[in-house]
Write a structure and sequence with these properties.
Chain A is α+β, with helices and mostly antiparallel strands. In chain A, about 40% of the residues lie in helices and about 15% in strands. In chain B, helix 10 packs antiparallel against helix 11 and helix 11 runs antiparallel to helix 12. Classes of the chains: A alpha+beta, B alpha+beta. At the A-B interface, strand 4, helix 3 and helix 4 of A face strand 1, helix 2, strand 3 and helix 6 of B.
Chain lengths: ~150, ~260
């Protein structure tokens, strides 16, 4: 079947299998920034934005996103560069596998929560696993990023 | 997992008819459990374009479309305003935001998952499920219903009543299923107690409720006694997360604590 949607504001039409998941479709079409870790909606590496909301693309059927707007890290390059700078300042940036999912989640957090507390930030990033760090450096990096604006 | 066909119905009737065509046709709500189970599906019927993602209210009840995502549900001012925010809080305990933006309230209920925070969190309130073809069943009756109900969940009706609730999910990490979960409420002066993930789907502890609601005078000892009754009347089992004995002990502690909290 053919599914048409907007990938970072560019209309695309892909031939997909009915049971194909979005992470797989995007990677098949060269969007390798979408990482697949656990492939069972636990690790969050495949997180991207659908209509502006963070979702795990390993568990969203491509067929179901007809006409919708998908944002990957390529669509938020400027913000992603900033987030990445704060990550490296705090040593949160180690192997990098979780970074794209994290960047999109943090980008969305900033838009959704006003002046969040530490607990609210922690709640929001649950479901984005980093196996290199203890996530404390992420919290510090996120707080610095939110403060900068 | 194999899905042979994806179908976007034009109406509930259309969805229902498609579902009847083959026993291997299934409804797609959020789709997270379908993915996890890896079952073989003939046609997957996607309800996402039928406008079932709205939350509304009238004088007597709050009506939640079955396709409302868990995230939209927990953020809704209407839901947050119910029973001191206890129902909204219970749903916030499910995985992360990137999961709850996919998972739906209807999908969580229809699956009757033993580990469900959504079911346990809703159980101690007056909740009715509306199905297509037209049929209304209380949440508790649906949980006790034997076999698979051949109908599509359209909406969840939560009766507006005066009361407050308590919710506790005992878990090892933020991403875990609960070891056990508790929802306690006091609605119109009557206590209700639900215990889930024992590790079976949540149930109301009727004997404990009858005991405490039948007392003329309630004190610390009554909370303790009601918690003990709840630990005796419901069934508990071992699994890899916890032993039966541990779950029994947690019940004695958290049911008591829940009763105390809602009595304040």
């Amino acid at each position: 079947m053919i599914v048409t949607f907007y990938l970072n504001d560019v209309q695309v039409s892909y031939l997909v299998k009915p049971g194909e998941y979005l992470a797989e479709t995007l990677r098949n079409h060269g969007v390798k920034s979408v990482k697949v870790g656990c492939n069972e909606s636990s690790c969050g590496s495949c997180t991207l934005l659908i209509e502006g909301k963070p979702m795990m693309s390993c568990s969203v059927l491509t067929a179901s996103i007809e006409g919708k707007h998908i944002t990957t890290v390529e669509g938020i390059q400027e913000e992603a560069a900033k987030i990445s700078r704060f990550f490296s300042n705090e040593g949160a940036d180690q192997c990098g596998f979780c970074n794209t999912g994290f960047a999109l989640t943090i980008y969305s957090l900033k838009r959704e929560l006003k002046n969040p507390t530490d607990e609210e930030i922690k709640d929001y990033i649950v479901g984005n696993l980093c196996r290199c760090s203890g996530l404390y450096s992420h919290l510090k990096a996120i707080k610095a990023y939110l403060k900068e604006e | 997992m194999k899905i042979n066909e994806y179908y976007r119905p034009s109406s509930l009737e259309d969805a229902y008819l498609k579902l009847q065509e083959d026993s291997k046709n299934v409804i797609l709500a959020g789709g997270l459990w379908i993915k996890k189970m890896g079952q073989s599906i003939n046609t997957i019927v996607d309800l996402s374009t039928l406008g079932l993602n709205q939350i509304s209210e009238n004088k007597n009840e709050v009506i939640v479309g079955s396709m409302v995502t868990q995230r939209d549900f927990e953020k809704s001012e209407i839901i947050k305003g119910l029973f001191g925010g206890a129902i909204a809080f219970s749903v916030r305990e499910v995985m992360g935001v990137n999961f709850r933006n996919i998972a739906t309230i209807g999908g969580s209920i229809m699956g009757r998952y033993p580990f469900s925070d959504v079911i346990c969190g809703l159980l101690p309130y007056d909740v009715t499920l509306e199905f297509y073809p037209k049929q209304e069943i209380s949440l508790e009756d649906y949980l006790n219903y034997k076999g698979k109900l051949n109908a599509i969940l359209v909406s969840i009706h939560i009766k507006k009543e005066k009361g407050i609730g308590f919710y506790k999910k005992v878990k090892m990490t933020a991403l875990d299923f609960p070891i056990i979960n508790f929802a306690v409420s006091i609605v119109n002066g009557k206590y209700r107690i639900a215990v889930g993930s024992r590790p079976m789907v949540a149930s109301l502890a009727h004997k404990a409720m009858d005991y405490i609601n039948g007392l003329d005078k309630i004190d610390q000892e009554s909370y303790k006694k009601a918690a003990e009754i709840a630990s005796e009347e419901l069934s508990y089992l071992d699994n890899k997360d916890a032993s039966k004995e541990y779950r029994l002990d947690l019940t004695k502690v958290y049911v008591k604590r829940g009763l105390e909290e809602v009595s304040k």
